Amino acid sequence: MRVLIVEDEALLAMSYRMALDGGGCEVVGIASNAADANIMARELAPDVVLMDIKLKGNVDGIETARHIITRYNIPVIFVTGNTDEETRKRALEVNPKGYLEKPIDCEKLQRALCMDESLDT
Amino acid sequence: MMPMSPVYAADIAGAALTIALSFYTLGVMRKIYRTRRGFGLYTYLHLQTIALCIFAVSRSAGHIIKHALHTFGYAETWRMLAPVSGSINSFTFIIFGIAALMYTNIKAASDEMDALERSKIELMRAKESVEKSLGEKHVLLKEVHHRVKNNMAVITSLLDMQQMIVEDPSFKQVLRECKQRVKSMALVHEKLYKARDFLSIGFKDYIESLIGDLMDSYGNQDIRIRLDIEPVTLGLNLLIPLGLLINEIVSNSLKHAFVEVQTPEIHVSLKEEDGRVMLEISDNGTGISEDNGAKPAKTLGVHIIDALVGQIDGDLDKDFQNGTRYRISFPLEEAEH
What pTM, to 2 d.p., does this model score? Predict the structure, then answer.
């Protein structure tokens, strides 16, 4: 599984990368803002995007996900600390593959993406 | 033409002096009125001074006309006008006085209405300001919980990375336990972030999420969890230590209690009575029996439990026969400071 990580918190992005690399997935890139995420999604064509909702810059993860899903048809899994109901509703409107709330268990993430276990959304 | 008598001359001089004095009084009154416009009494006195001036002018004018008519030989004409002149003067003075009084009362009532309207507007502005300030505090509090939660997510990720790197299983286990402790605290902020007042949350909801996390972490899917939680709302001061307490006790059960147990079960109950809360956590595991020579070890978990029970001014009762059972009772109000 080829994964693109979109996360503005460097340490979190690093921990996801370690978990996914260790589980046999390939992390194709890490982006911290919407513009980089769009470019990487287009050029690297990952199998799935792991997307934080709060990103650097003015465009949030939900809008970025909407663009990536409609334009490149790449599934998105949200991993977010913005767990209020309004944000969750907005996020689910773009039909993500999953919606995980921080803090997430890296072992669980590894099992879900690299061993294809079901995601608890 | 008759020469003017000294009496008439003195009368005319007196009339002129009356006019001058009344206008001087009016000037003084106007100055006072300008500085104390809001007061009904000054409005009334101001209008009365105007009435006095009109009275003085008309009366003096009457005297001058009277002398002119006498001087130019029209004394008979004056005798006809004299009664009417006095009545006009008196009538003008009375009517003006009544009008002044009425105007003053109406003005006072109108001023009072204006003052009330101003007070109402000021109150509305104060209310808006308080509501705005409250809204800002809510946003700020929500942001604080959000940031605390995110910082704890970073701590968890650091422990996660360390856990992935180390190879020693016992060290991995230590890191998993540390991570779970941080997560039990992060979960409080997660729930508070979603709560309406950002200050307190329902305990049952929190316990369900916490135990769900623990089950995930230890992978014990076959253990039955029985919750018997009364609907109690608790604040941050109690939630953090209680979450850590439950984390320690339930983790211990998940790790050690169910060796060769057919139908493993963990029971958590919480009841409130007379301002005291009774939390009971038990399992139907192997327990610790003196028959097999085992004694409860003084692990970090045990120290944490003792310290946290002390922090919430609670009493702890432990029983390790036929499974393990922890009973913790603590005052509801004590920790809500």
Answer: 0.65
